[in-house]
Every structure is written in structure tokens, then in C-alpha cells.
Amino acid sequence: MKQVFLDSLSLEGAISILFKNLDAMGLNRLSSEVIKVTDSLGRITSSPVFARCSSPFYYSAAMDGYAVRFTDTFTASETSPCMLKIGYDAVYVDTGDPMPEGFNAVIMIEDVNIITGQGEGYIEIYEPATPYQHVRTIGEDIIATELIIPENHRIRPIDIGAMLASGHTGVSVRKKPKVAIIPTGTEIIEPETVKDRLPRPPEIIEYNSAVLSGLAVELGAEAIRFSIVKDNLQEIKNAIIEASKISDIVLINAGSGRGSEDYTLTAIEELGEVIVNGVSIKPGKPLIAGFVNNKPVFGIPGYPVSAYLTFQLFVKPVIARFLGITAEENEKIKATISRQITSPMGIDEFIRVKVGVVNDRYIATPVGRGAGLLMSLVRADGIVRIPAYTEALSAGTEVDVELIRKKGEIRKTAVCIGSHDNTLDILANTIKKNYPGFSLSSAHVGSMGGLMALKRGESHFAGTHLLDEHSGEYNIPFIKRLLSDKKIALVNLVYRQQGLLVKKGNPKNIKGFEDLIRDDVIFINRQGGSGTRLLLDKHLKELGINPYMVKGYDREEYTHMAVASAVLTGIADTGLAIYSSAKALGLDFIPVANERYDLAIPAEFVDTEMIRILLDIIRNDKEFRATVESLGGYDIRDMGKVMFEG
Length: 646
Prior knowledge:
Radius of gyration: 34 Å
Oligomer: single chain
Number of strands: 38
CATH topology of the largest domain: D-Maltodextrin-Binding Protein, domain 2
Distance between the termini: 66 Å
């Protein structure tokens, strides 16, 4: 069953072919149904709604007071008040009461003087009333037969009120498109399987169907999730046949590639017709589109980012078409790319980015690019499209960013670009917990990358732990050298233990850096420019070890937890990282250094609300401090202390 992709279509070409086929098959708006107005929130109207009655449908008082005939008040003035007999010339009304027959104005209770005596009562007024003063006239809000909401309109809460006010209890809406989602794969397991145990190799918890279901429901569709189907051609075909009978759109997740157990293409071909087999996009190239039983069927790639992206590009507009609306586009902004991004020619690449506002500029920083990196979507604020015939975007280039977070949230986000530390995650959570309107966004590019981001004005602060070989001092010499033109406050966050991580029991008996050149030891490194990389290079230099004698020296990870994961899973035998990452994954730890991790904050941001909140938490939040200490390997004796200003 080894498959070969046909020539991949361009993104625009694939979408064009899809919609031409939908047109040819007459697959447009779905039929309608009548539902209760009170149940219609978010639904799409299938016909216009006209008012059955006016609102209000009678003359009513708009204020508490007395109903009068305005002609009886003509003579009223401050020097010559007008007296009106209660019950005859003036009738008390509450707000909303029908106006008494023949009365056409209301005088507010505050504007009358009530006079009683000898069993009769009068009101005394000091200025004349105007016609229909404080009176709601018939149809003031809604006039019978006027248009309330048009066809193909997404119903809002206020629309529900208007329909009820105009006499409607039912409304005709477009039926929800039913989207069947079929997860496939012999290695995937239901999430409930790991309720009482962790997954075991080669098991993978199936979660894409939940993501795809959520995306469909957000758009106004109904999601029908099938049980997992193993990698078996006939079983997959059976699931597609069943799904095509009960749904309007079928999504087959995974199996759209060209591996020996990828059956989606063959299944669709044998049951119907394939119109797209591969699209020149990254991620998402293995997308398949076709038709079975006159229903659009999509082979959605198994990697989570590919699944998300291909749904947005291909399935979202089909759902909108069936609902009779235009697919809503996410908000777009102009932003400056913080570092160069290279991209393969001939492919539209979609890059996930973190976005922040620094010095009134939107700054976009790329996050992980792998199609399997679900957390790159969780952490991302937006997506940048690099056109097919653009090889690279240089640092400082202005780009369009399609936001997947609200612009208001981004404007209240403190941007940290620099060295990774687990305490930043704790800090981000504490900020969000205590100040819900604010966020902390961190991009991990290493200490040196963080200082250069400050130099370019691309972040609010940077995490750094750079050791100067000559002075033995942390961070300050680098700030003086690289940021001499800026005023910087260097605030300590933690002291932390760095060391070599090894599997439990240290099966290869690794004792120190000298063991890294052994034939049986594979190392996992941190990226160039990181403080951890500089620490490694310093020790190798002191031992007279050529870095390229270390197997794995050129293989880089961007976080301590990624290094720990590589050791845990056997990708490497050891790597240099902080103690808390070893503790988190149950690894053994060989300490080699106790280093200072600081936050470098440009002076112009120190007094901003976001940074004041951050510093207050660092200095005064006991729960935050206790949580950091519980991670292990941290010393908080100087947490929040200014170590340098200059």
C-alpha cells in the first residue's frame, strides 16, 4: 500500500477545485428547520423575520407620574400653576401602564405638587406638557411588518429579544451541518484508557478528534465523533460509508500520507472520487479531498498542527457554505518579525508566532514549527503565511499576522524573549490567576538572543544567565557590552542548579563532562547563544575537549524540559539542564554549577503596569515563592533584588 503523492496543488488551486466540484454537485445551503426563538442563539436564519406586531402595541407611560391631556396644561407657569383634579384631569400611572383613554401626556411624579383636602385631590404643575411627553407610542420600537433580521444572519442575544417582542416564538434556521470525524490509527487509544494509568509505547492518546469537533461546533456545526478505527482498509471504508449516510461532511483523521498503513486515499478512491491529493502547504501537505455518496470527504493529516490548519483552510469554508454565510476571518494586524525565518520555495508555509506590543509596535516571534507540536498552537497568538515563492523573511520585516487571540489580550501581555526557565511558567500562571486581564508570553531563544531582542526593542524583558569567563560574573558584563546604549534594571529571579541529566540509576555511569567523548554516550545540546551552551563550552574548553568530539553536540533543543524529555525517551544519554527539569521527569542529576538567573528589564518598562505587577509577584507573593522552591534546585534568597542598574 505504499503511496506516492500526485503533484501537489497550490493552496488557491486546491480550494478552487473543491468549490467548483461543490457547485457542480449542487452542494450549497442546507435545508431549514423551525426551532424555538429561545433556543436559536448562534443559529443562522434561513428566511427573513418580519414583525408580527408592533412594540409597544399600545400607548404606554414611559415614566411614573400622572397622565394628562396636554391641552389642559397650556396655562401652567411658575407664577400661575395649573390645578388638575386627580381622577378626572390627571390619572396616576406607573411606567409601562397603558395610557387612559383620551390622555396623551405624562407628567413625572417629581414635577407635580399634590394637594389634598375635603376628600378631593389635585396636582399642581408649573409648566405645560408637550404632546406625548413621556409616552411610548405604538410602534416606537418595532412597527408591525418591519424587518427584524434578514436571511443568513447569525442570531445574537439581542435578536432573540427583538423576535420575541415582535410576536415570534419560532424561527426558521438553517440546519446545522453534521460533521463526522473518524480518528484512525492502530497505535492511538481513547483518552479514557489512561484514566488510571499512563500510556505505554507505542500508544498515543487520541485528541485530534476533540480539537476538530470543537472547531466544528464553534462554527455552528454538529460534530459526530466515531470510535477509533484501526489501520485496516475495509474497516476504514465501512466507517466512511456509515459516516456519509448520517452526516454532511466526513473527516478522516490520519492515514492521509504515503506510509504503508495509510489507507485514506485508497478508501476514498474505491468508494467515490478523489479531487485533491496533496497541497503545497506546510504544515498540511498530505491533505486529501474527495466525495463519497455526494458528500465531501477530507483526509485530514494526523499531526495536530496540520489537522488544525487544514481544517481552517478547507473545512471551515465548506461549513460556512452549507450555512449560507461567508466564513468569518480572524482579525489581522501588521507586525514586525523579530528574527529571520527561512522557508522552502514553492510551498506556502504557515508559521505560528507569539505577538506582543513593545514601544507601540506589534512584534511577532516565531515559536516551534513542527507539525506535531500541539503546544506551539496553544502558545501562539497568531499565524504568519510565508508565500510559496518567498525564501525568507528577514528580521525587521513587516508581515500580516492572522490572530488566534484577541487584540486586547495581546496589548496586555508582557513579552519575555530570552533564556528558558520553568519558573517563567509559574510566573505566567500566577499573573493570570491574580490579574486575569494580563498575561506573560515567553519565547525561548537563549540568553544572548534575549539581550539582542532587548537591543532591537522587541521585548519587555529577557531572562538571562550568561557567565563571563574572565570575571566569573553573571550577566552584568554582557549587558554593559551589548546594551551600553540602554538603561537596564537587572532583577534576580532565582539561583539554580545546572547539571548533567541521566536516566534513573545512571546506566552508563556518566560522572562528568569528560564522559561526553565516550563512544557509547550520546549528548543532547542547547541552542547556540543560550547560557547553558556557554556553560558547556566553558567546561569543555577547560578540559581541552574539542566540542565536535561530543556525539550530539550539533543536535539542539530550546528548553530544559526538551533536554530532559530527550534523555527520558532515550534520544540521548545525557544533556545539560536545570535540576527542576530532572525532578519533573524522574531523572538522575549530576550537579556541575550553581548559576544566577536574572531578568533584564529596560528602564522605560519598569514603571509600566504589566512590569509592576510582575515585580510585585516576584517580591511579595508567598504562594509563588513557595511553588518555585517546590520545583527543586532553586534558591530564592535574592528573588526580586536589583542586581544592577545602568
